[in-house]
Amino acid sequence: MRSTSEQADGTGGTDRGRPGEPAAPEEHAYPDHWEADVVLRDGGTARIRPITADDADRLVSFYEQVSDESKYYRFFAPYPRLSAKDVHRFTHHDFVDRVGLAATVGGEFIATVRYDRIDDRGRPATTPADEAEVAFLVQDAHQGRGVASALLEHIAAVARERGIRRFAAEVLPANTKMIKVFTDAGYTQKRSFEDGSVRLHLDLEPTDRSLAVQRAREQRAEARSVQRLLAPGAVAVVGAGRTPGGVGRTVLGNLLGAGFTGRVYAVNAALDAGTAELDGVPAFPSVGAIGAPVDLAIVAVPAERVPEVVADCGEHGVRGLVVLSAGYAESGAEGRERQRALVRQARSYGMRIIGPNAFGIINTAPDVRLDASLAPEMPAAGRIGLFTQSGAIGIALLAGLHRRGAGLSSFISAGNRADLSGNDLLQHWYDDPATDVVLLYLESIGNPRKFTRLARRTAAVKPVVVVKGARHSGSAPPGHRVPVTRVPHATVSALLRQAGVIRVDTVTELVDAGVLLAGQPLPAGPRVAILGNSESLGLLTYDACLTEGLRPQRPLDLTTAATPADFRDALAAALADDSCDAVVVTAIPWVGVQGTTEVLAASLREAVAGGGEAGAAKPVVVVHVEMGGLAEALSAATSTRPPGGRTRRPAAPEPRTPAPEPSVSGSSASGLSASGSSASGPSAQEAAAPDAPAPDVPERNIPAYPAAERAVRALAEAVRYGQWRRQAAEPGRVPEYDSIDEAGAASLIARVLGERGAGQESRGVTLTTGEAAELLGRYGIALRPALPAPGPDEAALAAARLGYPVALKTTAPHLRHRPDLGGVRLDLATEEQLRTAYAELTEVLGKPEELQPVVQAMAPRGVDTVIRAAIDPAVGAVLSFGLSGAASELLGDTAHRLVPATDRDAAELVRSIRTAPLLFGWRGSAPVDTPALEELLLRVSRLVDDHPEIVSVVLEPAVVAPGGVSVLGAAVRLAPPAPTTDLGPRRLPSY
């Protein structure tokens, strides 16, 4: 290749044939699906699109701004300007054998990449040649931003789509940065040295490493884009009113009240002549008039004026926008188009948007102290990251957390989340050392497949708690652009739990779980000690534990005469007891005694602080009833940092000396604080990303709840999450099976789709029974043959062919898998029995042509199950399992896992349904062959994972016997694969 680069981002490429060589490619339709917005390494955005003949002037302007050195690396010789023939060659493509892509900002080129298909001798070629030479050129001012890496991902995807399997590139040895772009991409490659240049050959088939590289770059870029918004050096409030009041002026006041450490400017196009300040900060009629860099603009002007504000910001280098203005997609069709235009305009300048219709953002870091929101007060600094899609819910959550004494690291309320979403915040919080717990209120999930992936990765290092609004409305809230999904809400919830997400149903439960996880270590197991001064409250807590699947010990009744010292001693003993993993303290008011509740709070803190290593490893929660004094004690302080300033987490877990006088925090449902941290086992507040800077160690806040059920539910979520964390540390594997014929299955699928004429708009093709049996057989799944029986004579011939005993079944759609309707006759041992059964069926249920009866050899008796795999455009491939019949259909007793499933997933699928005991010898029955069942699940998973054309597989019934599994029925549907939302090159959601 011939190239230039800086900081592993570069320029270069080889064209076989010098610049200026004439070419006349055949025209093809413009591939608009190649257009994409991407986030670059520094957090800015760029648009990638095909180069067309209309780009001649842009290309010339772009080339004039490239340094001579970059041009030399590109062409291996001085090449100061492009001739007319060069411009024609580089802007006229057939989009098959010759393709050019450009990265643009503000409509102008900042980088280009092109490939030319070549044959095995390096000469220009057409299909079926599957190799191409690739060349890059990146404008010097934009080198180091990750532009070349993003372009390589997209040009490689284009090449694969066009049947190209390898790239060849020639690079000067001195151009080490461009060489690094290729070698770091993760593709399988070969390198050689020829004629004074480095020759690289890249196999474009994605590898585990290339996918890991791509996702790591995605994470760094998207996290950086959020960081740029949360930690700006200068903020302009556009729309700050000339008089007090109003949205803009309120945000300006909040910025100043929070003590923002950067520069603040007020912008109002209608400023009176001579007005130089608003609220003591410099005021200007436009962002451009400021004359100094601005990183973040808070937009609070009417929607019709927003475009001019965006243009003003974009032209003067603003990096991001928080659009508080309403009147967008939430207001109807006109607003939706206005929202699309807003996103397109902002991205054309490389800016990201929070909003529109946003509530604002907050960053409590002491070196930032940003409150660019409409919140009535700045929250305390703490360890919780909070994201909401609703301003009203945001206010409620901020107030609830404040009452509970829980502080925040950052807060984002994204409104219509037209651009920046919860996925971006997960990228940021994943390795944010200031955040230990992530709380999300979501009304829609724009990219569920990506969300699940990011949530799984984040949950492996810190808790992610989600409450989903609009679960039962059947549509997304106004203003939210989301893909249509056919997967029921219960399935999505199950998949999120599989990814380690703590799913709760209400905002109250979100706060309850958040304060516990932010202030307490994760329990090592489900064993719970209960102690308190009320036998009744203890029993309520005991019952709640059983309901939530915990293992409570017999409550310890300290009696109503118990003193705070008794509580202290009992709690200390429970913390030291190896037979429990968590402690619930229950308390009711003392009669006629004043000031005891404050002493109780201090006694509980003392017990936790003095518990040593054992106490530090166990969570403690408090359940109280109408104890106002305790509430006051718990709310005595709201700081979430231990006295004495910043304390670094030790390199390895070790006991921490308790502070002499730990502070108190909380309220009626909040907590008391005691110094201490987990000395062993995973701790929520200690969960930080690998290699991330160690965060400050927060106080250990003891959360308190006004109801036993709330406390126990939050504790149970922590128990389940802790178990998931321990299992996630040793993930399962996707087994390999020698008996799988992937190529044969692919050939069968291609033939069927070709013969049936299934185009991109087709709803799909249902395989015949024979085709389904052949396809499943390629993956080692045997389908028991069933022969048609249109009459009793044909039924007898079929039985003779298969061998007795046989089953006679109807296959009419309204009778399939409905044995309760009498459409199945089993264990027919003779022809006489078969003919009798045939006569009964046709007499009771209808004519043979209506019933479509078949004869099938009897399978060993066992448990009837159903296995399904389906492709959903939003969440991807989902593998489901349940017992056949009413258990799964009526009661919804079905388990789900994402594909590809691991051996651990398969085992959990079998065991996680409520009716699982039927598979393991319930009431003296013989246990079935669960290893064979798990292998069948894994083979189905592998089948749909290998072939995205398979959009649905149903095996019903799959009869699991003590000695194996028999698949008696199967339905398979094919369709051209739909575009995936999370497997191709990096891209932002399109508008």
Q: Mean of the pLDDT scores?
A: 85
Please report the number of helical segments.
28
Which band does the percent of strand residues land in?
15-25%
Radius of gyration: 33 Å
The major sheet is characterized as: 10 strands, mixed
Any low-confidence stretches, pLDDT <50, length ≥5? 1-10, 14-25, 635-698
Overall form: flat
Helix content: 25-40%
Task: Let me know the number of strands.
Answer: 42
**Could you give the distance between the termini?**
34 Å
Structural class call reads alpha/beta
Q: What is shown here, in short?
A:
By secondary structure, the protein is of the alpha/beta class. The strands form 6 sheets. Strands 1, 2, 3, 4, 5, 6, 7, 8, 9 and 10 form a 10-stranded mixed beta sheet that branches. It has a 7-stranded mixed beta sheet with strand order 13-14-12-11-15-16-17, with helices on both faces.
Your description of this structure?
The protein is α/β, with parallel strands linked by helices. Helices cover 33% and strands 23% of the residues. The chain contains 28 helices and 42 strands. Strands 1, 2, 3, 4, 5, 6, 7, 8, 9 and 10 form a ten-stranded mixed sheet that branches. A seven-stranded mixed sheet has the order 13-14-12-11-15-16-17, with helices on both faces. A hairpin with a 5-residue loop joins strand 3 (36-39) and strand 4 (45-50).
